[in-house]
Amino acid sequence: PQAPPPQQISGGVAALVNDDVISTYDLRQRALLLILTAGVPATPENMPQIQSEALRSLIDEHLELQELRKMERDQKFEIVADDKEVDQALQTIAADNNSSLPQLANQFARAGLDVQTLRDQIRVQISWNRMITGRYGSRVRIGDNQIAMVLQRLKANADKPRFQLSEIFIDAARAGGITEAVAGAQQLINQIQQGAPFGPVARQFS
Which residues lie below 8 Å from residue 41, measured CB to CB, with a gap of 6+? Predict the structure, then answer.
């Protein structure tokens, strides 16, 4: 769905997405979530970029959730993830960080962040992915002739050199500013040209 131009309003409202209100509290919480998860220092220089990214994410998620709710009404079928699914996803995140769900919530609380902010984000992600998979996944059909063509091409190129190309995206907002992003990119280029393994800069910006 396409985002309408957000209406910037005073009085505790950051934006309106159709009939949904994004409050300044929601915006502050999402910005804090970005800071904690990306490990970006909150400085006066990069806060406007962080807030802009946070607002853009909130608008996109509100639009996606509105579309999902409309599909539920039209098709009489539940698409939006329930609390149990969200809890399972959060438990996985906590386990990946050698923690539990209550411990994760406590860590967030100590930083001034309500874990509900993460819950809302995960709910939309699960639901939107489910909709995309359900709508388009069933349309993908791979025939035997396509499989045979791929196998034949792999066999023909088996003795030829092969290269793997990938893209490294450096987000200036998360890197701490455009100057830091450019410096990090240049350091990555130098490492690649020297054939050296990626160091701290690559882990930070990739």
Answer: 35, 176
Residues in contact with 52: Cβ distance below 8 Å, sequence separation at least 6, in sequence order: 173
Give the Å distances, CA to CA, from 161 to 44, 193, 196: 49, 19, 21
Print burial letters for 105-127: b (CB count within 10 Å at least 16), e (below 16): beebeeeebebebbbbbbbbebb
Relative to beta strand 13-17, strand 20-23 is antiparallel
Amino acid of residue 183: A
pLDDT tens-digit map of 135-145:
656 555 666 77
What confidence tens digit (pLDDT) does each residue in 2-21 have? 444 444 444 488 999 998 99
Closest CA to 62 of 2, 12, 109: 2
Residue 7, number of CB atoms within 10 A of its CB:
10
**Amino acid in position 80:** V
Q: pTM, whole model, 2 decimals? A: 0.61
Tokens 């509100």 — which residue?
62
